[in-house]
Amino acid sequence: MSELLLQGQHDYVKPEEVRVAVLDGAESRNFFELDVNAVQARLNALPWVAQVSVRKKWPNKIKVFLTEQTVASRWNGNRFLSKDGVVFKAPDRVKVPLVSLSGPDDQAKRVLEAYYGYQALLSAKGFRIAKVNLTARHAWELTLEGGTQLFLGRSDELSRLQRFVDVFPDIQPRELIAYVDLRYDTGLAVGWKKNEEKVNDQSRR
After folding, report:
1. Is 199 within a domain?
2. Together in a domain, 88 and 180
3. Which residue range or ranges hold the POTRA domain (predicted)?
4. What is the distance between the alpha carbons of residues 49 and 157, in angstroms, rounded to a whole number?
5. 66-92: buried (b, 16+ CB within 10 Å) or exposed (e) per residue?
6. What SS3 state is found at 58?
């Protein structure tokens, strides 16, 4: 076996990695002796591989169809999260900006789904999320592009986020906002980069 036919998406998996995994000893075996299951197992062990199928093609070819992980975000700083909410570790070969999500590993899919919901609400007003964190106490914390932090607490996150969207145009000066604490029933607190703080109570608006 001496020829490799590689098909499918491979933006992150290097062809040489595939070749090494496939042809590891395969070149010394004939068509009938090659263990396709062993080759497939080696390919599935490659970090960026999500699914793979291997076929032998007479007389000396190995045909590989490969599907990579569909990366959605960074996870807890040193791993990635797939679009299916699966946490995986792989060499960092991503060339586009990714949102950073963090939280307990068993809550990864929940955090990803929450991010999609938060971003959908915020994007209508031109905001983009840089980070989402679910704390050990299951409280939500967001960081917007530009560095402003939003503290949403453990309940009513979407309504609290809507409150931020409604009130934000009235908060000045915007460039000095360090954080907005929305863990109130009817109001919010603003933390300033100059270590000042003021409370904006919606009940007075």
Report:
1. no
2. yes
3. 1-69
4. 35
5. bebbebbbbbbeebbbbeebbbeebee
6. coil
131 lies in which domain range? 71-192
State how far the Cα of 181 lies from the Cα of 164, in Å rounded to an integer.
9
Last residue of a domain, one of 68, 83, 117: 68
Residue 17 has pLDDT above 70, yes or no: yes
pLDDT of residue 198: 45
Q: Tell me which residue has tokens 């109570």.
A: 201
Angstrom distance (rounded) from CA 179 to CA 191: 5
| 46-97 pLDDT, tens digit each | 999 999 999 988 888 889 999 999 999 999 999 999 999 999 999 999 999 9
Amino acid identity at 74: R
Burial of 167 (0-12, 13-18, 19+ CB in 10 A): middle
Q: Is residue 198 part of a domain?
A: no
Q: Between 10 and 120, name the one with better pLDDT.
A: 120
What is the distance between the alpha carbons of residues 20 and 61, in angstroms, rounded to a whole number?
15
Q: Are residues 187 and 137 in the same domain?
A: yes
